[in-house]
Amino acid sequence: MSLSTPTTTEPGLSAADVADRVARGQTNAVKSATSRSLLDIVRANVFTLFNGIILAAMILVLVTGSWRDAVFGFVIIINTGIGIVTELRAKRALDKLSILVEAPCMVRRDGRDIEIGHDDIVLDDLLWLRAGEQVPADVQIIDDRGIELDESMLTGESRTVRKQVGDQAYSGSTVVSGGALARVTAVGERGYAARLTAQAKVYRKTVSDLNKGINTILKFMTVLVVPLCIPLVISQINAVGGWSEAIADGSWRQAVVSAVAGVVGMIPEGLVLLTSLNFAIAAMRLARGNTLVQELESVETLARVDCLNLDKTGTVTDGGIAYERLIMIDGDTSVGTAVDGTPGERPVTEREATQALYDLSDEAQPNATGQAVLDALRDAGYTAGDVAARVPFSSARKWSAVATADAVWYLGAPEVLLAAFDGDHTSLLDRVGGYAADGSRVLLIARAARPSADGTSGTAADVADDPTLDPHARPVALVLCAERIRPDAEATLAWFREQGVRCRVISGDNPLTVGAIAAKVRLTGDRPPRAMDARDLPADIDELADVLEDVDVLGRVLPDQKKAIVDALHRRGHVVAMTGDGVNDALAIKEADLGIAMGNAAPATKAVAQVVLVDSRFGHLPDVVARGRQVMANMERVASLFLVKTVYSALISLGVVLTAIPFPYLPRHITYVGALTIGCPAFILALAPNTRRYLPGFLRRVVRFALPGGTAVALSVLLSAWILPGLMGWDLDVADDLASLRATCAIIVFVLGVFVLARVASPLRSWRGALVAAFAAAGVTGMFIPFVASFFALRVPSGRVLIATCVALAIAAAIFALCHVAAAVAAWIISHSNPTRQNM
């Protein structure tokens, strides 16, 4: 495009006009900060309820000088660090988010064309739009030079758009060919791309059902711990002789440690840590498969997805064009006879038509369709022919031409070519419409003999100098191209159907085209997909939700409609995943429960997505969802394990307060037992294969499992603490006797902890049984290792203590069995008395 010969005489803004608009803030500069500062992120992760409870308990223990009983506090550092690092990554991605490329721009001011920076554009500037450049601000075309825009990143429409004088062009689109002079109508934060960016930058943390359940447990335990903590400390002070004696002889330290043992046991600190670690490990495993998880909690969301919205371009298709085939046109459209009816020309063969197609596509800079044709025909052995003259393809003309020794060949849009040719071509246009309805892009090859009967075709030079269509040309063949479908699309969609996940294709393209592609990949299996034009969708969110239940494919969808579709599906209780690659998908991806961006997506889209398929392979999604299901199903299993400790710690603390006895074990005991029967086994179990689809009711199922086991442990420990001192003649005011009781109670907790682990790990006929046996053996072995026994205050029972311990263990096993039988009976009675709860 030449900028020296404008067809408009407008001089553009003067220097005074520019200064006035700059003073009023009407420039193209946009603030880039996100809503989350570094201080906000640190504060949110450090000052949590969980950290507060654990930190207070750790400080109390350290004050007593018993640092060995304070090792549980390290979980704060690890868990807080994971949270801060994760959110800082998200902040950096959002801060870098920009839909616009800040390249230099050319404007007309004071009658001269000058180059300025992106941010220096002001309202009402006259802006030159040049081929290959991105539109930096919203504009209105005032001087058209055959401009053609790619708006796919904004609208999802994969075809380029021809603009004329008076049309609007939005920031974020790209000039494919031609150029224009345009007046800036919106700048900075008022621009279309900036508005999308601002909405995308709003920080929204992924909602984790697992974390919500854990937080509910923590809140409940806080309600229980705070009122119980004070009487627990008082009871332990009284157990050592009262405040005056405790302060005088320093026994208050042991009382504080004993109280902390009860408090720490009630907090499932390992569960919080294991949840973060499990999310992180799942993310690392997915990363090895070229899947980037940007928010760890989104791994869990994968397990709950039951509705998947797919963007066509970039997801089902790869955005490229594929040459399909050439179809010769039969009947009266033959060009084997001269226009005046005299015989003499032989019919055109398919090879000649194919060679002409190659030559027509073989331009200096072929477009995507031309390149696809060339690639396919080169593979078939075709090479460039003898071309005397050429008329390159133009988006304004919609056709191209080449002249050979005996003919002029045309290639272009069928409706444009046929409108210029003599004769009635209605049936051929209907045929073209049928191919288009099947998802194909249709081009027409036509041929005019040179020289023709009346000499209108002229010489080769005439063809190049005067690019007009010969009305005597006749159609020869149809060329069918289509968007290139990803090879893994059909198999991936079949997997989702089998897993009960409803898939919909949502695109900015023509609904007939999208529906045809959906049918090719068997989106709905053997049933034809039901397609709809998004322009016919109701505005009311509830009506939209009703319509979506019966729609599989939506075309002509606007960015705001994609977001509304996600909202409508949420109204019906669906957990929605959204895939996409364009800026037009960014808002919907952000609104969805799980946003999935392709690796070749716009930076804005990747920044707001929770998951990025780095190599843009749609086929990774089944593994992504399976990994999420593994995390959720296994974390439910191990959460049950951790909550057992919470239940028995709370019940034991209550029993200690009510009966004013010394706490029956130390914090280090619970650290040892918890590590071998809960923490380490839980970590291994959490990584085991598990493809069970997530079902609502996580917290209810966990509590239902934990109550009988926790109750059994609490009853067994309390009975031992109440009865054993009398039977064994232990004086609990004597340190050695108290240590013997606590060591015995720790053994009871350990053995019953192994029983609980066996229930969680079942069935035990595989490696799971070996896992339980290994940790049981490790716990027993540790008691015989001097350093371990000394550090954790463990004792190997002997003599009368051994007999008493064995009896206590036998009674504990009986209590354990009775509690679980009672729980099973209660569950059966409840389910049969209320049929609606049977499947809950």
From TrEMBL:
Keyword Transmembrane included in the entry's annotation: yes
Transmembrane segments: 46-64, 70-88, 220-243, 255-281, 638-663, 669-690, 702-724, 739-758, 770-794, 800-830
GO molecular function, one term: ATP hydrolysis activity
Domain P-type ATPase A per the UniProt entry, residue ranges: 104-199
Keyword vocabulary terms for this entry: Membrane, Translocase, Transmembrane, Transmembrane helix
Signal peptide: none
InterPro entries: ATPase_P-typ_cyto_dom_N, ATPase_P-typ_P_site, ATPase_P-typ_TM_dom_sf, ATPase_P-typ_transduc_dom_A_sf, ATPase_P-type_domA, HAD-like_sf, HAD_sf, P_typ_ATPase
Name under which the protein is recorded: Haloacid dehalogenase
Species per Swiss-Prot/TrEMBL record: Bifidobacterium samirii
